[in-house]
Write a structure and sequence with these properties.
274 residues, alpha/beta, 10 helices
Length: 274
């Protein structure tokens, strides 16, 4: 895989020039084009028949407001992209996840942010990152809340022998090849022999792709996501690569899981595939 086109999600309620600059820097590093996308959908008018005219007027006004926001977001997006990067823009009157998933067919990587300031926004205005990881069919890089740059000089792979983790490592190859240091980390679940053998196979596969990675099996210090983040912090890594939702999303929501916990940790950049 090569990164030739990056799709960056531009949140209408919290346009982040810093996130756009992060995505643009990645585009420049890989000689990729950059697509900016913002989307929102008017709220369905839950008014009875007697209020049909008022509902139509409310919908029309909200749509007009979104169209104005899209124009402003495009201007902010273009202003944040340095000269020399090939850029295009897509503004859409529809739910962000639907728009991103449809546009993902044009991209090799989706970049989105960690949402803090607009936590009350619903799915009609704010992307659901978990749903995006599951449905886009492309890797998703979730930038940390305060990301000014995604260096990815030291990359930590959160390794577990699952389909999702194998997909994530393959999708991340361009970033792994560009990194100075790659460390694969398995968090032990009790079968140390099988976990070590699986990790050694991963390291051998990475070496075949000219990536001099190292790795080890670690005991969980806290939860698995917290342990990964702690190890990444000690290594000075600003990017963790993992598979997304090895169990169903509902099960993770009910009982906890690495993907859910990592998505709730906005202080680290996370690369996920499903």
């Amino acid at each position: 895989m090569e990164i030739r086109t990056i799709l960056v999600n531009v949140d209408l309620d919290a346009v982040s020039p810093a996130l756009v600059k992060c995505a643009a820097a990645l585009a420049g590093r890989f000689g990729a084009s950059l697509i900016g996308l913002a989307a929102a959908e008017p709220s369905p008018a839950l008014i009875g028949v007697d209020g049909a005219v008022a509902a139509a007027e409310f919908y029309a006004q909200e749509r007009a407001d979104i169209e104005a926001q899209l124009q402003l977001a495009e201007a902010q997006f273009r202003a944040a992209v340095p000269a020399g990067i090939e850029v295009s823009w897509r503004g859409s009157i529809e739910a962000p996840n639907r728009s991103l998933a449809a546009t993902a067919r044009r991209a090799d990587l989706i970049v989105t942010g960690s949402h803090l300031d607009n936590a009350g926004a619903g799915y009609l205005r704010r992307v659901d990152v978990g749903e995006l990881v599951l449905g886009a069919g492309r890797p998703v890089l979730v930038a940390s809340a305060d990301a000014a740059e995604i260096k990815a000089e030291t990359v930590v792979i959160g390794w577990k022998d699952t389909r999702e983790a194998r997909r994530a490592v393959a999708d991340a190859l361009p970033l792994l090849k560009a990194a100075a240091t790659v460390v694969a980390v398995s968090i032990s679940e009790g079968d140390l022999g099988a976990e070590q053998a699986s990790l050694e196979d991963l390291l051998a596969w990475l070496r075949r792709h000219d990536i001099a990675a190292k790795g080890d099996v670690h005991a969980a210090e806290q939860g698995q996501a917290e342990t990964l983040a702690a190890i990444a912090g000690r290594l000075g890594s600003d990017l963790i690569v993992t598979g997304g939702y090895g169990h169903s999303r509902l099960r993770e929501w009910l009982f906890g899981g690495v993907t859910r916990d990592l998505l709730a940790a906005p202080t680290v950049n996370r690369f996920m595939s499903n």
